[in-house]
Design goal:
The structure is a homodimer of 274-residue chains. The first copy, chain A, is an alpha+beta fold and 274 residues long. Chain A is built from 7 helices and 12 strands.
Chain lengths: 274, 274
């Protein structure tokens, strides 16, 4: 399950493109197949989960019971790959840089297009992503180490258990941001407004408390430098459903590949607390 | 659909009882069959919607698309009338003062017990209620006119349309709280934290803007006195699904009777923004 450390191509013109629609077109044409971090800054990015209608209700209840890892931004109509609320005209089968296909809880493929997998009974869920509040954190002078280091993500499977719903059960995944205690206080204030994109941290301090044995070995992405005067601060992460798919041996689920998000038309301020 | 104006029995010992469980027992025994306003202050009260599993997914998507009128606090497991998260041991078939039964969009009965209606395929949804933030408003010196006047609710069907989901469509219902502009600003700040119980207001000022023709004729409850220096401030209301049931001609839905809420074990502070 571990994603190899991957650095993002620096100086690529995509970082200057401000239109989420145009960026989705680049991705659709296969011109961008890596991390979306730092792309379309100021627009909300989202985690993706696709399930057959037969499992959709239980999964939506799972999200309701676990709002920190699984804050739902949009649910498409059954059979429709178009997220009409967050990106009218987009196609969730082609507009993400990479996907993961799970069958009976096993990761079987990582395609860059899932058109051939689409069925009339599929429902897509867009789930908030902590990238959304990173612009707000930067404005509040909180460092984003992944951006400083030019890496995509740094996420861990924890010992925290999600509240189950039907067949959906599993641990919570978290993302790491190292910062000083003063910055952690400010970051808690700032992210509290972003309840739709994971909200306030779930933990700060000793990683062992939440079952992270080695902070230098993230489950997904690249390890981050933690300075002398800094503490690790952890936010719930939208990769959680992927770990749930494995533990719960879900019959059929398609997700984004970690860090390879869907870029919506929603300005970050739109998903901040209304 | 209009609920007759109803004043609450003053000085009843229930107002001094602090245990939600004991209050639910009083209600279960039929000793309290009226408004729950002012009862168990500090504990979250909830709107109730019960639907067959076949309609449950579309309704939960409706809630996701309309978080201000329909913020979901809990969804029970299919067939279970026990809200394990918010009130372990409670029974949603008996523990509310009064219910409404809708068939094909028509209100057919207002029982005080729905045990005889219960089926193995029913799912119960508890939806946040603006009573939750009234303690916080009182602490912020914002007046609650319904409490001052000793009446239950003052709610209006508006011209604001909810975002539809499948067969569920209809207008938004709002609750009224008159206050000064300065108090309205403070109330907006205070209620923003209570996103799980309707959050910030949806409108303030001219009632006609949201389709309220006569402020003295609420759809539910009793008209409220609005002082010279006050403006009407409106919050989304959890009665909305009842109006949706009628407009959408939903086959079978049970709800609470407006103002006759389910009292959970959750302190108000637990549902405030985490």
């Amino acid at each position: 399950m571990t994603t190899a450390a991957e650095t993002m191509p620096k100086g690529h013109p995509i970082y200057k493109e401000r239109s989420p629609r145009k960026i989705r077109e680049l991705i659709r044409r296969g011109e961008w197949d890596t991390y979306t971090k730092g792309v379309a800054m100021g627009y909300t990015q989202a985690n993706l989960v696709i399930l057959p209608e037969a499992d959709a209700f239980e999964f939506l209840v799972f999200c309701q019971r676990n709002p920190k890892p699984c804050p739902v931004i949009e649910v498409t109509d059954v059979g429709s790959p178009e997220p009409c609320y967050s990106a009218l005209g987009a196609d969730l089968r082609t507009d993400l840089p990479a996907y993961r296909v799970f069958r009976k809880g096993e990761l079987v493929e990582e395609p860059t297009d899932i058109t051939s997998y689409w069925r009339d009974d599929l429902v897509a869920f867009l789930i908030g992503c902590s990238l959304t509040f990173e612009s707000a954190l930067l404005e509040a002078s909180v460092p984003i180490r992944t951006i400083e280091m030019g890496v995509g993500t740094c996420d861990y499977v924890t010992s925290l258990r999600c509240r189950p719903a039907g067949k959906f059960r599993g641990p919570m995944v978290v993302s790491l941001r190292p910062m000083t205690p003063e910055q952690a206080i400010r970051a808690t204030q700032v992210t509290t407004r972003f309840a739709a994109t994971h909200g306030a941290p779930v933990h700060m301090g000793d990683p062992a408390t939440i079952g992270i044995a080695n902070i230098n070995k993230p489950t997904y992405g690249s390890p981050l430098k933690i300075n002398e005067d800094e503490v690790p601060v952890f936010w719930a992460c939208g990769i959680t459903p992927q770990v749930v798919a494995v533990e719960s041996q879900i019959e059929f689920m398609i997700t984004h590949k970690p860090g390879h998000m869907f870029i919506t038309d929603l300005p970050d301020s739109d998903v901040a607390l209304l």
